[in-house]
Amino acid sequence: MCAIAGMVCFEQPAEALVPAVKLMLHRMRHRGPDGSGVLAKTHAALGNARLSLVDLAGGSQPMSSPDGRWHLTYNGEVYNWRELRKALSTQWIFRTDADTEVVLAALALWGETALRQFNGMFALFLWDELTQTGFAARDGLGVKPLVYTHADGVFAFCSEAKALVATLAMPRANADAVLEYLVAPYFSGVESSLFATLNHLLPGQFLRISRAGVELKTWWDWRLPDEWELDGDHLAAELHHHLVSGVQSTLPTEHPVGAFLSGGLDSTLLCALSARQGRELKTFAVQFQGQAEFDYLSSLIVRSDDTPHASAAAREIGSRHAMVSVPRQHLSEDLRILASVNDALPAWEQELAQHHLARAVAEAGLRCVLVGDAADETHYGYPFLLDAEATRSPAHIMQRFGLPPLNAELTGSNACQKLAAHYENLAEAEGHRWDTPLARLLATTYLIVKRWLPRLLHNGDIHTMAFSIEARVPFADQQVVELARRVHPSLALHCGSEKYLLRQAARGLMPEANRTRPKSSLPKDQRAASAYQREGALAIKASGDFLGCWLDLHAIQELCRPERQLTEAERALLFRVISLHHWRQCYNVRKP
């Protein structure tokens, strides 16, 4: 795990780019506290800050091929690197025991086709000194990030937008991206950066940079299968096998491991499988003040209190369990920190829980944590997928989670409707339709995998890496994902149960009570409304001119009145308003 950074300019020598690359690495030191390096070639400067988990002595980066042609900076982990090393060893003499060199050799020998051989998470940049071309790529689901810009003859990239922002004189907000954040936060921060002129390499994309410019291509996508597999028993048995092997390959060999344990199906299954490998496991669950008395019946996603379920699972599995308390008296400062850490802006209130969980893992002395991300998105795990009305169109999803009061200009231009139409078009471009219940369910799932999941994975990466913690995502295992793609919705949502096939595959692998527990998302503080109202009023006072570019400020001020009882959607909106204010101040962002 690392921070990667680099610059390419064909009009000046690479040595002139080195100071800016070093500045980017400095801004991302939390991602790689164990060492850093910068390499300057003819027209490219590459940098890397390393968090050492594999080959502690020999995996330093940037890494070069023996002949001096290829140069790699790489972030992530390719779990099948040992198998790939065997296949490459007839053509490559390996000098290290690091997966980095395997990635370097595979790309040098196999080219872009190597990407389909990598089972893991990665963002990388490879420079070819012979042809003076660069190649960047990102894993299929988007577990690891890569941000880039190409302007005034300079191509620059790094792991976090905040590092590239450090090279800009004064960043400017991307009006469309901020609108998406306010209207559909769960889909935001994936296709477009919040900062104008910055771009995200999309999950499953690769990029080539040469004197001719930048070329983008897709190497992996969530596509409909040529033929559905309808034998549920066979699929469950196959998935059972892949889950066991996927978790086994994900576990680090040289470091102890922790896990976020909610007591639900996904996290409990990962913990139970880790324990079956004989690994000592530390588990962590979050608890807000008064959480047991929260209103779960009317909540959109958080359906029950995790605490007793997580504790019971930990006892049965045999993990060393810690309950992480989130003090409400520090909420004001926590909101400011969240917006500075997450440069794509905090999308969910649950990011407060992620932040405190990651801090607890770091304080426990761990460097690696297992997370259950990607299970819900690839295995039909959200209860609203069972609601035909919610999946009728992207507009219905947006309405379900609440639309903000926009200013008159945006309301008059039908901004929300245009954004919903854009999501419809994204799915239709991949062959999906919205004309039958099944077609709409498949189209909605496509958007969830292509937009909701990368946003979720970004949040997980950014909050764990802020504390120098590597989050590993076993449900993103290549074989697990490819099998999930072949599962017909009628099997995944059988008998009105979300993740039905995954639950069948998990039989015998985990505590039964947790296997059958209904889906409930990571908790959020339902009693934070009054704090949000105070902070929201301060945000409007300090950043009203900025927030007014998108929002109806009078309507937002009404939400901030202390006597106003907030709905869940209104509380979430104030959370985003406060986050946008802090983001603007932290990065000194100009109006569009």
Compact description:
By secondary structure, the chain is of the alpha+beta class.
Structural write-up:
The protein is of the alpha+beta class and 592 residues long. It folds into three domains: 195 residues, Glutamine Phosphoribosylpyrophosphate, subunit 1, domain 1; 284 residues, HUPs (Rossmann fold, 3-Layer(aba) Sandwich), CATH 3.40.50.620; 59 residues, no CATH class. Helix content is 40%, strand content 16%. The strands form three sheets. The chain has a six-stranded antiparallel beta sheet. It has a six-stranded antiparallel beta sheet with strand order 4-5-6-7-11-12, with helices on one face. The longest helix has 29 residues. The two termini are 34 Å apart.
CATH class of the largest domain: Alpha Beta
Beta-strand share of residues? 15-25%
Q: What's the CATH H-level homologous superfamily of the largest domain?
A: HUPs
Which overall shape is indicated by the principal axes computed on the Cα atoms? globular
Structural class by sheet pairing and helices: alpha+beta
Annotation, overall tally of beta strands: 17
Instruction: Please work out how many helical segments DSSP would assign.
Output: 22
Q: What composes the largest sheet?
A: 6 strands, antiparallel
Quaternary organisation: single chain
Q: Kindly, what is the distance between the CA atoms of the first and last residues, rounded to a whole number of angstroms?
A: 34 Å
Number of domains: 3
Specify the CATH architecture of the largest domain: 3-Layer(aba) Sandwich
What's the average pLDDT? 95
Give the neighbour order of strands across the main sheet. 2-3-1-9-8-10
Q: CATH topology of the largest domain, what is it called?
A: Rossmann fold
- The low-pLDDT segments are none
Tell me the helix content.
40-55%
Rg over C-alpha atoms, rounded to the nearest angstrom: 23 Å
